[in-house]
Each structure stands twice: as structure tokens, then as C-alpha cells.
Amino acid sequence: MSKQLVVYISATGTTRRVAQNLAKAIDADLAEIVPVPPFTAQDIDWTDPTSRASRQHADRAMRPPISASPSADGYDEIFVGYPLWWDTAPREVRTWLESHDFTGKTITTFATSSSAHAAHSASNCTIRHRTPIG
């Protein structure tokens, strides 16, 4: 049986709850990607051009810092969860993805959103060696 990890980042708690339920359902370990600084309500106000979500959308090369980088070592299958910001994952997810080697691992993404479609988000994420996830 493969060893599984559910990794997530959450701005409002919705993705956290989904990740917790998934980890429990599949008996997987659970770990959080912690942004620096932590998300605020203003950060996710997509109508504000100075919000974190808007700035990240405008700068695809941005790789914001994270304070906790859950290790992918020892896992065969990793589920990566995130809220959708402008149809893609917050850039902190890319910071985490690019800091690990996923050779030989199965990566599955899941996303939460009140308005965006998740199908676009997986095609916007890549991991080391330019392997698409999703």
C-alpha cells in the first residue's frame, strides 16, 4: 500500500476542512503550507488591485516565502489542495512544489472556490522537471 500525504494551503479555512476530510477518508498524513505573512481577508479581495491575490495574478514569476515546507520524502502519493485565485493556485503552492523532487510520486491536485473552475488550475501548476500536475 502506498504512503499518502495531503498538503494544503488555506486562506479562509475551506480548503483546510476539505483537506482534513480527505486525509481522514484515505488515512493519509496531513500537512499545511504556511504563507508568510499569514493570509488576511484583504489578501483575497480580488477587486482590490493591491491585494495579495491580485499581485500574484499579475506576477506569474512570484514565489512568495512559506514558513513551513512539508516534506514530500517518504510518500508515494501526494494530494495538493489550494483555494483558486484567478483560476490558479496561490503562488505559495508553486514555492512548495518547486522545493521538492517528485520523481516517482503521484501528484493529485484539488481546489476550492466559490466561483472559479478547477480545471484550469492544474494546467497552470508545474513541478520540478516541468512535469504537469493534474
UniProtKB/TrEMBL annotation:
Residues 4-134 form the Flavodoxin-like domain. Coiled coil: none annotated. InterPro entries: Flavodoxin/NO_synth (IPR008254), Flavodoxin_CS (IPR001226), Flavoprotein-like_sf (IPR029039). Residues 44-69 are annotated as: Disordered. Signal peptide: none annotated. GO terms for molecular function: electron transfer activity; FMN binding. It holds the Pfam family Flavodoxin_4. Gene3D superfamilies: 3.40.50.360. This is Probable flavodoxin. It comes from Bifidobacterium animalis subsp. lactis (strain AD011).
